[in-house]
Each structure stands twice: as structure tokens, then as C-alpha cells.
Queue: 2 jobs
Job 1
Amino acid sequence: MSDSIKTLIESRVSTGLYDTSRTLSDETVNELVRLATRAPSAYNLQNWRFIAVRSDEAKARLKAAAYDQPQVLDAQVTFIVCGRLAAHEGLAEALQPTVDAGIFAQEMLEGWVTEASASHKDNINKQRDEAFRSASLAAMTLMLAAEGMGLSTGPMSGFDPVAVSEAFGLTEKDVPVMLVTAGYGSDENWPQKPRKPLDQVLEIV
Amino acid sequence: MSDSIKTLIESRVSTGLYDTSRTLSDETVNELVRLATRAPSAYNLQNWRFIAVRSDEAKARLKAAAYDQPQVLDAQVTFIVCGRLAAHEGLAEALQPTVDAGIFAQEMLEGWVTEASASHKDNINKQRDEAFRSASLAAMTLMLAAEGMGLSTGPMSGFDPVAVSEAFGLTEKDVPVMLVTAGYGSDENWPQKPRKPLDQVLEIV
């Protein structure tokens, strides 16, 4: 199987049906999230958090918070991909390894923290937008990484964020942005659905 | 150069410095957006719109709306990636090719339109969340597709959305979610910055 990025993008399908006889190792779950966190985030905030729902008990909890959609039980794992609010508060710590690696200087870190704090501190809408952006970028990276490992995924926005937060003890700073089921898809999933013609969505100026 | 997805994810850097001597063809811009729109969206809403800013005149307009960040001039192109509000209104049209291709039946389309309309119609927050999700998933797909084509990209959330909307005649339904510069990066960009250890961002339950 070719895993050129073009092939992966064109062959990915949003998967609802999984082969329930299979399992996924800790190692694979870890690798998916490791690659997901290579996604970019503003200031390298890394304002995300992943809960990998894999046990029967946790799957049942998540299904109840996701309008009883069965794929949450059938998939080998479902990731609750959260963005985090007030991420500027953790920026200095998030960037310290960049300074330690000699990529940029301590003054740059301090400048970024000052700038991010000034723009985010009293702006909950900006914090929320940033949480949605970062979590979604990471989720897409995870889905394409999975595709390259021969796995299938299905993004879901159909869930009750309050119920998910309660069921998994999320803090008030964690915004559940998307669920992503992952595992071994069955052969009965729909093919990728057609997209709009380019001239309906793109303008070059 | 290997273009395995793992390599692409690990080698992508958020690029601010571009080789200004190069240009990018219409064909390449089109191909990037064609692949970006293969990203998933809820109900296959495809609630996105791309403006590829490539002329000197348009770049100057965008730079003024992006806090004068110079990479908007230097990059071969900058995509204004918009999510769209009230996307349920266009869902029937967006899904018709799926019915025409025999992937699912007309009744399924009608069911999805009814369901999406019920949940989105009077819920501007949900519409906005969906716009941010879809546009960000498409933006990440575009960035990895670009990487596979030997191009560099840089996502930017540092812009004034109102100014961008005014400068490019966006409608009130278009939400500019992210700018993505793209082109030929110079050799002076930072390497990919270190990420948090996995145990700080992942919990398996």
C-alpha cells in the first residue's frame, strides 16, 4: 500500500463501522497521540489534551454522552480531543524545552509569553477559538497518521460537551472539541463522499 | 525524500521565512485546495471557503489586516481559510452528488438535512464551532499535502478577523479561521519545536 500523503488524503473515509474482533495496543495509541501533538499551535501553546477511551466501562460512559452512537463501543479506541482555555498560563513551561534546545533565546520566550498573555488574558472568545483551532489541527494530524498506519478513523462532533466533561472529569479549562474513533474499519463503510467543485470554494486574488 | 506521513508530520515546521524569488502556479494552488477539501466535515457540510492571496496588491491588503506580519508578503501564497456559518442551509446541495454517486439514498440526505437543520438553525455557537472545526481540519490537510509536495507552510492566527473580512469582501457567513502561508521556505526557519511529554497530554481509560 502506498502511503503517499495524496493517497492517504484521498482514501481516508469517515469510518462508522469497525471490526470489533480487533484490539489496539498502548503503543499504537501512544504513537497516534505523539504524532498528533506534532501539529502546530499558536506560540507552540500545545493547548490540547487527549483522553483515549478504550475500556468497555469508559466506552459505555462516552456512548451515553455521545447520543448513544454505537461506533464509540465498536471502535478500538475513541479519542476525546480537548482544546485548553487560558493556555497562555502554561506557555512559559511549554516553551522552555525550545529554549533548552537552543532553538531560540530566553528573551524570545519571555516576549511570546508577554504577547500571548496580553491578547488572551481577558478574552475568553480568543481562548476558545484557539482551543478549537489547536485541537482540530491535532485531530486531523492524528487521523492522517492513523491512515498511514493502516487504521481507520471517524471524527464526531455529535456529542454533548457538558456530559462528556462530567463523565470524564474534565476541568473547566478543557473544551472537548471533537471525538475521533480509531481502529480497524470494516469493509462496509461508505467510500469518501464527493466534494464541491473547486470553483465553489476557492478564489485566487 | 521520503514522503511517508510520519516523516511529513515530524519534519513540518511552521514557516515564517520564504524564498521570495520563487512563484507558485495556479495548478499547485488548486491542487492544495482540492486536497484540503478532502478533509472531513460534519455531515459532509464542506462549510469552508478559501481565498488564495497571491498578487502583490492582495498581499498588501492582507498584511495590513494581519498586524503587518511580513511573511504574508514573502510567502508565494497565503490562504485565508474560512469556515461558514448556517452551513445547514447548503447541506442538501452539498450532499446531492453523494446521492447521485449511489453512495446513499435520497431519504438519507433528507434525514441528515432535517437533523442538521434542527441542531444548527437557532444555535450560532454550534455553527461557529462547526466552522472552526471544519476550517481547521481542512487547513491541516492542506499543510500536510503541501509538505508532501516539497512546500512549506505557516499557520497564523494573528490577524484581525474584522479587517480581513472587510479587506476581502467576506460575507457575514464567512468566518476567517486561520491564515496559512505557503511556498518555498528559506533555510533559516527554526526546526520543529519540542513538544510536551506524552504523559502530560494523554490519559488512557
Note: Chain A touches chain B through 72 residues (CB under 8 Å).
Job 2
Amino acid sequence: MTREELILQIKHKASFLCIGLDTDLQKIPKHLLEFEDPVFEFNKRIIEATLPFTVAYKPNLAFYESMGLKGLMSLKKTMELIPNSVFTIADAKRGDIGNTAAMYADAFLGGENSDFNFDSITVAPYMGEDSIKPFLHNKKKWAIILGLTSNPGSGDFQQLQMVNHQKLFEVVLSKSASWGTPNDMMFVIGATRGEDIGVCRKILPDHFFLVPGVGAQGGSLTDVCSFGFNPDVGVLVNSSRGIIYASQGLDFAEAARSAAQKLQMEMKQQLAKAGLLNE
Amino acid sequence: MTREELILQIKHKASFLCIGLDTDLQKIPKHLLEFEDPVFEFNKRIIEATLPFTVAYKPNLAFYESMGLKGLMSLKKTMELIPNSVFTIADAKRGDIGNTAAMYADAFLGGENSDFNFDSITVAPYMGEDSIKPFLHNKKKWAIILGLTSNPGSGDFQQLQMVNHQKLFEVVLSKSASWGTPNDMMFVIGATRGEDIGVCRKILPDHFFLVPGVGAQGGSLTDVCSFGFNPDVGVLVNSSRGIIYASQGLDFAEAARSAAQKLQMEMKQQLAKAGLLNE
């Protein structure tokens, strides 16, 4: 999906919601365990229920890999359900030397022998330029680079101060951005502190940010919007648990739908307030 | 495998060789393509030919993931061939927040629903402590953390100078090491410059280093040993292409055997010179 197509979808649905399909056999409603592929059944109903309110789905690969090849088969079937008009993110956080990174790009972005054809993949920056560039060769595909994450460990290295008094994550943002364009690169920017999003927006005025940490992890949607919006909206806000596990009973899909719709309505208000809806 | 068991194997085989099973359909001998599972056939013959000379095998997950679920099935069958006396490394370079990292640990280190039971997994440090700790819960399993890599991009962030005048990779080594012990944690330390291995050895006298970059990438075995050895040997040296693609003809397995044996004999000399063989 191109940047223009993504922006169109955001305006069409009045939503910049990304739903994290972090499906865990321990947490899905018990009655689904009777199906041959409970993970796929769960994902299918979540997608059907939430599709009108979301512009992106983001399965985290760890959840599927932990279930072995069977889990990856459930993911493959899940991804085949999602229409092309929805942006898809392989939250895989891969990162390896050039020729190996090219194989990860094949694996997730629709290589010849691959089972997956995501629009984008999350990528770790520690190994530098040759570990990122192979994800940027296709005009409709994206690398989403870890910039500033929202977990406790983000302070250990990302916030370290460099000799030039920038923090490591600031250097990661500006240097990585020079390897691609705002049309093939986004950044993961955690929402636990709104001011941090503002710092990142100052460094990268044009890029889309994928923002986790709203809701369960404590970030505020209002802060994300006031610090993160740019003239093309420029943010995708992820919610996983708050939507997909809104209920663990028979009504789980309906509850997920309501939770997604509630967030989408808040997003619509924010978009309207910022003058970012065309109507 | 425990540290003691690994050291015993190294002394028993007079080898600290790790063979990278980076199997690429484009590079394996053409006659293998007639088999139902060419990747598995190739790996099987490489393992049979090289087993006497190596203490570890390290498949890079990207190579298998790029072939889809079929590739991962080939890897599963491959790993089942490797005896318990050989150390196994999932070169997966994973890194994610705490609860997700725990799922990657399940996926590769023998979780209940997993198809893989490696001794160790390579891990990226950018997300900090909670992304590393879940790999350290089992006394026979290891996290192998990216410290200083040998690719061109390693200069982009790893070599950046911090406000305290250490380089980022030095901070990564010392801080990460505080989260585990030399019994459950190793570090990837590239061999392109021997002096760098010396710097890392000074910071971490006791840890094992997994050293790529010898051979094809230009590192010298003598340098690795003189800068990297500790009283428990303390290094595993990886070779991939130089062994598994030593020949692309019908004699590929025999050529791989010769290449592995040649490296092992050089390693035996280095071990003897350093007084690290018990005989």
C-alpha cells in the first residue's frame, strides 16, 4: 500500500487505528477451543467485527511462532482474510546483515516462496544501514523501524546520552530516516510520554509513527494527537488487548467491535478538531 | 546444554567451531533439487559430514522463513538430526517487550507448543532488560546478545560514542551482562578487527563470545584466539559459506568435511598453543 492509499483510507474511515492481533490460546474464549484452529476462528471473528473501524492489523509474530508451525499456519490463513484496503504490519522486529535482511524481506513482504505478503514489517536498528535497506526496495512496502519503544527496558539503551548530547533514539531516527523516505519508512514511537512523541515529530516532520502504548500501557490518545499529528495525520495508534480481549465470553466479537468503535469515534473527534477530515 | 558440558565438548573435539546452516536453495548443488525436501537433504549430508569437527550448529532463521512454512518444516526435521552433545543456536536475532520475548523463548527454546528446542537464541538488545530476561529462565538455555557485529552497518549505531566516552557496544556489553551470568548469556562479537575482540574481552572476561566474520568476511582465527581466549576457551567461531558451500558439485559433503576439518585442526593448534587442551 502506498502512502497516498493509506492516507485515503484514514480519511475514509475517520480512523488511524491499528489492531494488534496478539492472539494467545490462554486468553481467547474457552468455547473456541473446540474448533480445529481456535486461533484462526478467533482472528476471523475479531476481523469481521472490527473491520469498519480500523485501517491496519498488526499480528505480533512471537504469538504465532510460540505455537509452532501450526501457529504460523493460523496466521497465514488469518492474513488471507484481510482485504487489500487494510494496511498490514508483520510485527516481527527483525534485523540482520544485508543479504540475510533481504531474506526476511522475502519472508514477510511477499517473496517468491513466501507464505506472507504483508505491507510492512517492524525492524530493529542495532545492526545499521545494511540491515534496513533491503526492506525498502518495493514502492508499496514499508520498513517500520524501532525508534523509541514504550516498554520499561526502553530506558536502558534508547535513552542513553551521546557525546553530542542527543539521545540514542534521536540519532536512530535521524540517521535511519536518511536511508529511505517517508513513503517507505515509518517509526515505532511509544506513547507513554506525549512529550517524547513531540521530540520525535520535530526530528521527523513527515514520517508516519506507529504508536503503541495507548490504553493498557498508559498513553493518552489526546497527547498522541497533539504531539504527533502532521498534515497527513502521520500516526497509526495500535491497540491490542483493549480490543481483542474486551470480553472473554461468548460476546467477545461484539465487545471487540464496541471497543474498536469507541476508539475510532475518539479518533474521528481528534481528526476533526485538527482539521484533518476532508468533509 | 550447560557451560560445563559445552567446555567438555570443546576439549573433547579440540574444536570451538560453529557451523552456520544458512541453506539457500539458489546455492545448494543442483542434483539435490530432485529430492522432495532439498534443504533437508543438504543439511543432513552437511551434518553427517561435519559432525566430528564442530561443537555447534547455527541455522539463521531468515533462510528458512524466506521459504515459507515449508522452510521451517525443513529446519524442524534438520534440528531433530543433531545429537544433544552438540550446541544449537537459533540465529533469530529476536527482541521484543517482556511478555512477547517470553513467547519467543517458548518458540525457540522448547516451549510446550513449540516445534523447536534449541540450546540458545540470538537476541537484539535495543529494547533493553525486559526484552532479554525472559530468555534466561532455564539453566540449560542461553541468550546470545548482539554486542558488536561484523557487518558494514555496525558502525552506524554500535560504534557511536556516548557522553561517558564509552561506545554504545561497550555499554550494551556491560549493562546486558548484569542481567544474567556467564552461564546463561553469550555475546555476538564480530571478528573483522581483532583489537575489538580484545576490548570486549576486557569488559567481559568470563563470557563466551560467538564470533562471526572469520574467513569470508575477512577476520583472522589467530587474532580471534589471541584477543578472545579466556581460561575456559570462551569463543565459538562461526563459519557458514566457507564450509557448507566449499563445493557446489556432487562432492559437496566431502568438501564441507575437509573445510571443517581444516578449521578444526587450526583450532586444535591454537588451543594447544594456549595450553587449553587437557591432554
Note: The beta strands of chain B are 17-20, 56-58, 87-94, 120-123, 142-148, 185-189, 208-211, 235-239.
